[in-house]
Specification:
The complex is a heterodimer. Chain A is built from 15 helices and two strands. By secondary structure, chain A is an all-alpha fold. In chain A, strand 1 and strand 2 form a beta hairpin. The two termini of chain A are 25 Å apart. Chain B has a two-stranded antiparallel sheet with strand order 1-2. In chain B, strand 1 and strand 2 form a beta hairpin. In chain B, helix 5 crosses helix 12 and helix 6 packs antiparallel against helix 7. The longest helix of chain B has 27 residues. Classes of the chains: A mainly alpha, B mainly alpha. At the A-B interface, helix 6 and helix 14 of A face helix 6, helix 7 and helix 15 of B.
Chain lengths: 340, 327
């Protein structure tokens, strides 16, 4: 009998793509530190943390959906409307807890709607969450008709303090997001429900045959995504002290790409929360690089789109490789029946 | 004017020899007419020649873009990059004209770029078996970025006068694009009834594997459909650029989702195997009437976004439920 070689550590932990992205992120950080003296400036590092923290919280929800082969494009809009809801409730004089609960409830309700449409009515998740994105943005516009561009800006001091606290130069929000990410990772690796997420995404039929309730898990995952997006929106509102119609605009694509390059796959059954962190870091560094090197913002969309196309193509090639197609037929250098 | 557009529809659906094919054109036409009649009776400034003209003009331009899109949907693929290709082609034509090119070389180059984008989409989908939804989201972002780079480079410059006149070309007092739409609908009718290619496309949409086994050149047809989708979107983009007279970063934003909605209203399905250009045209007309009606009733314009999202979900939900019952 030939001995089956033991797979490497990274492969065993399913962290191959994560480590690759981490490598790229580190190289980029190093290059930035050399190319631009402003990169290691404390202001810049603080702004990096502020951009990573909410994105990471949203990405945790998105990654959960990615694992079961779904995604949620409404997160940016949910983030915006939750911040605005909290701001309105606080503005009319209610205590802070009520405001935060109202914001979270909005996000959970939208998540539940998404979940109901996808899990119970089996409607394509792209269309549902996209429709919800449009509807939510429409509602935001209607709420903010006649409001100033800056939106709501006066908050109780306790609320802004929640967004502003920090430990020796490290933002509290950032620490909170990291802690949340750690908890999710432990949940994924150590508990049965966590493992079953990947099982469900990897082989839905087998998972359902062993008794996993797919609709229920999908529904809960969409609620989780909505709730986390709402949480990020509320924290962001507290951090910047503003709730306006621009919050979270275009965020869904950034998170989506972060999850993809952080090891997720649209087909499901892949991914880890650590990967979400690394992917979000990568995107944040990329945006930061554009800002530091003063590249016009239109080129950012070009580069992000190109990265998405590249990642999708590489993902597809990997899937084909897994099904046993040799490289030479994959790239069409030789017809399939001659090769292999 | 509107009569020329709606009259052919009931005639077309009469010979219902193949059950299910084109069967929803008649009810759709009735609904569209009902909304039209409702608006015409309740709002006196709706049924003015000017308003109807502008609705029909807008629909006829969008219609050009939905031609290829519908046939991509027939094959159970989707092309979300149409809105961006639409913007890029229009802006590129304008930018080339501003820098002194002639109209035909400029439009030709822009359409070639569109065809290239369509080819890349189709090639990657076919070669690497990629989910077209995912891939075209990527190309959507990429191409949109390029279009914005061009638009910002132009600033607010207006296009040359001859180009601005293009969309306003009239033949016998009817806009060129409206005539084009009528001709294309008639051609599509013939294509869908007579052509083996359309039957093959439906076959591919219903069951790719079986279509491959039966010797249909699936890859070639798919790539051609993606190219057609990008080129028709590009054509519509050129007319739109001519209509709006200057570079605009918001051009064609969200167009792809209006098209998905219109195509599904018109009888296409996310699950492939179906699709009807006549229906897609009626779907676009229906959406345009609804949005115009909202303006007539003084609904906040920002609420339109909400309605588009709502209609998208409702039509797709309907499509999904119908499909489950059939399967």
């Amino acid at each position: 009998m030939t001995r089956i070689p033991k797979p490497s550590f990274l492969r065993r932990q399913r962290l191959e793509q994560e480590s690759l992205t981490l490598g790229f992120a580190l190289i980029m950080a190093l290059a930035l530190a050399i190319a631009s003296p402003a990169f290691l400036n404390s202001n810049n590092l603080a702004s990096l943390q502020t951009s990573i923290a909410p994105n990471l919280i949203v990405a945790l929800g998105m990654m959960t959906l990615f694992m079961i082969g779904r995604f949620d494009l409404s997160v940016g809009a949910v983030m915006g409307i939750s911040g605005i809801t909290t701001a309105i409730v606080l503005d009319s004089g209610y205590p802070m807890a009520v405001g935060i609960m109202a914001g979270l409830a909005t996000g959970l309700a939208i998540g539940a709607f998404n979940g109901f449409m996808v899990a119970c009515l089996k409607i394509n998740h792209l269309i549902v969450t996209l429709g919800v994105l449009y509807m939510t943005r429409g509602v935001i516009e209607v709420i903010m008709v006649g409001a100033k561009l800056a939106g709501f800006t006066s908050f109780p001091p306790a609320f802004t303090a929640m967004g502003q606290w920090g430990l020796g130069g490290i933002s509290g929000l950032f620490l909170f997001a990291l802690l949340l990410c750690l908890l999710f990772e432990l949940f994924l690796r150590l508990t049965f429900p966590g493992r079953s997420l990947l099982f469900l995404g990897g082989n839905p039929q087998a998972a359902e045959a062993t008794g996993l309730n797919r609709p229920k898990i999908e529904f809960l995952a969409f609620m989780l995504s909505g709730g986390l997006a709402a949480l990020a929106g509320i924290l962001m509102t507290a951090r910047v002290g503003m709730a306006n119609r621009y919050m979270g605009e275009g965020l869904e694509m950034q998170i989506f790409i972060a999850c993809l390059i952080g090891g997720g796959s649209i087909a499901g059954g892949k991914g880890s929360y650590l990967g979400a962190l690394i992917g979000v870091m990568f995107i944040a560094l990329l945006t930061n690089a554009f800002n530091l090197l003063t590249v016009p913002s239109e080129w950012q969309a070009v580069v992000i789109g190109a990265i998405l196309v590249l990642v999708v193509v590489v993902d597809a090639i990997m899937v084909l490789r897994k099904s046993g197609r040799p490289w030479r037929t994959l790239f069409g250098l030789r017809p399939a029946h001659i090769g292999s | 004017m509107t009569m020329t557009d709606t009259r052919p529809a009931p005639q077309d659906s009469k010979p219902a020899r193949s059950p299910g094919f084109g069967a929803n054109i008649l009810p759709l036409a009735v609904i569209t007419l009902a909304i039209f009649a409702f608006l015409a009776l309740t709002r006196e400034n709706f049924a003015t020649a000017q308003n109807l003209n502008s609705i029909l003009f807008g629909v006829s331009i969008d219609f050009l873009a939905i031609v290829g899109f519908t046939y991509v949907m027939v094959m159970r693929e989707i092309d979300l990059s149409v809105g961006s290709v639409f913007a890029l082609t229009g802006t590129l034509t304008g930018a080339l004209l501003v820098s002194g090119w002639g109209f035909w070389p400029a439009a030709g180059l822009a359409l070639a770029v569109a065809a290239f984008i369509g080819f890349v989409n189709g090639f990657l989908v076919v070669r690497f078996n990629i989910n077209s939804l995912m891939l075209t989201i990527g190309t959507m972002l990429l191409v949109r970025g390029l279009a914005n780079v061009l638009a910002n480079g132009l600033g607010g410059q207006t296009y040359p006068r001859e180009f601005r006149q293009l969309a306003r070309t009239n033949i016998f007092d009817i806009r060129l694009t409206v005539i084009l739409m009528v001709v294309l609908v008639l051609l599509a009718w013939a294509f869908q009834r007579r052509s083996a290619l359309f039957r093959r496309m439906c076959f591919i949409g219903e069951n790719v594997k079986s279509a491959t086994v039966h010797g249909i050149r699936v890859g070639r047809i798919r790539i051609l459909a993606f190219m057609a989708s990008a080129m028709t979107a590009g054509l519509a983009g050129i007319f739109t650029a001519s209509r709006i007279t200057s570079a605009d970063v918001r051009m064609g934003l969200g167009l792809e989702f209006v098209m998905v909605t219109a195509a599904i209203i018109g009888g296409a399905s996310l699950y492939g195997g179906k699709g009807d250009l006549r229906g897609s045209a009626l779907g676009l007309l229906l959406l345009a009437l609804v949005l115009n009606g909202m303006i007539m009733y003084d609904v906040e314009p920002v609420f339109q976004q909400f309605v588009i999202g709502f209609l998208l979900i409702v039509t797709v939900a309907f499509d999904t439920v119908m499909n489950r019952r059939r399967g």
